[in-house]
Specification:
By secondary structure, this protein is an alpha+beta fold. The protein is built from eight helices and five strands. The protein has a three-stranded antiparallel beta sheet with strand order 3-5-4. A two-stranded parallel ribbon has the order 1-2. The chain starts with a helix and ends with a strand. 19% of the residues are buried.
């Protein structure tokens, strides 16, 4: 890691208490270079100076390091395993009165936890079994969590959802689908 990148790492640690030193240098450089335009600087030396004088930019840089790409049922094979084997085997050993708790870490804008909820609801319906469950969705990005809590998605974001699930779990208003 070069000196200037090291300075940015130190600023992130001192201002926000975030250790970004473990990020790959190439990735970190790419993210920093993308921030040049927002900071209206031409090179990394100017950016270091800018970040030193603008703590909000350090926060914006940290937000830029978060990978927020997500889709409903993003990895179809994983969700097929959850639906066909993992959830049924977990539920088989649980008493009916117990609660299934699921944690979706790094939930971004909510597609993963909502996908999991649809799977659990579908299993519940097929098994005709009373099922209590709770999905805890967390993310480092506050803005992503706000988006997730709204449960609103554009048509291009719901392409992987089965028609039956769209009908059962969403309300369409104009071009927006909202989790019901």
């Amino acid at each position: 890691m070069d000196n200037e990148l090291g300075e940015i790492v130190q600023i992130a640690a001192s201002v926000y208490g975030s250790d970004i030193s473990k990020y790959d240098d190439m990735f970190l450089n790419q993210v920093v270079e993308k921030r040049f335009a927002f900071a209206n600087v031409a090179n990394i030396s100017e950016y270091v100076q800018y970040v030193s004088n603008n703590p909000d930019e350090a926060g914006a840089l940290l937000q830029s390091l978060n990978i927020t790409h997500t889709d409903f049922f993003r990895n179809p094979l994983t969700f097929a395993h959850l639906e066909q084997w993992i959830f049924p085997s977990i539920l088989e050993g649980k008493p009916e009165a117990s609660e299934l708790r699921i944690w979706s870490a790094g939930c971004s804008s909510g597609q993963e936890p909502y996908s999991i909820a649809m799977l659990v609801e579908n299993i519940h319906t097929r098994k005709s079994r009373s099922l209590r469950y709770r999905i805890i969705a967390t993310d480092i990005s506050g803005s992503a969590l706000i988006q997730a809590s709204k449960g609103e998605y554009r048509e291009d974001e719901i392409q992987r959802i089965r028609v039956k699930d769209l009908r059962d779990f969403f309300i369409k208003t104009g071009d927006t689908y909202t989790v019901s």
